[in-house]
Design brief:
The chain is of the alpha+beta class and 66 residues long. The protein has a domain of 42 residues. A hairpin with a 2-residue loop joins strand 1 and strand 2. The termini are far apart. The protein has one helix and two strands.
């Protein structure tokens, strides 16, 4: 969404936000919130995945050798 031109692009088509209904604007805000949450959760998943690898490597080093 571009704040300078007050438009949003959906499916490769530009829409002027001033022309959209309040209900549509509310749905867009909800969609943007969900996109933000997905990005936040993906970042947390990346951190957890990295930590898991570190723990796995630590366990491998602590296992008795055969």
């Amino acid at each position: 969404m571009s704040e300078e031109t007050n438009t949003i692009t959906i499916d490769d088509k530009d829409y002027n936000l001033d022309d959209l209904s309040d209900e549509c604007k509310t749905e867009i805000q909800s969609l943007q919130f969900c996109d933000g949450e997905i990005a936040r959760l993906n970042a947390k998943l990346a951190v957890a995945g990295t930590a898991r690898i570190a723990y796995q490597n630590a366990v491998a080093k602590l296992l008795p050798e055969e």
